[in-house]
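Here comes an entry:

___
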Amino acid sequence: MEERKIWFDRVLNDTKKIVAQAAMHELRKHPLLKDDLDDLIQDTYLELYKKYGKLLNHENITGWLVETVKRKTKDRAKRLYR
């Protein structure tokens, strides 16, 4: 369990700025979601933590995180605009 936390903390510190930028970029397309920035980022990192075993040796974890936050934003927008 300690190994997972160390890995997660390292990935979080290395990627938080770019993931936040990607989320803000996506939110410009969906202005009604502007207050959801923190939730989207948190949900993205929660998914990362849950998928530790599958993502531990992923070759592009930053790319995975950026695509995940984009997908989560689009999914949330779809639910909102229904």
Observations:
- Helices lie at 2-28, 37-50, 52-55, 61-80.
- The CA atoms of residues 7 and 56 lie 8 Å apart.
- The chain has four helices and no strands.
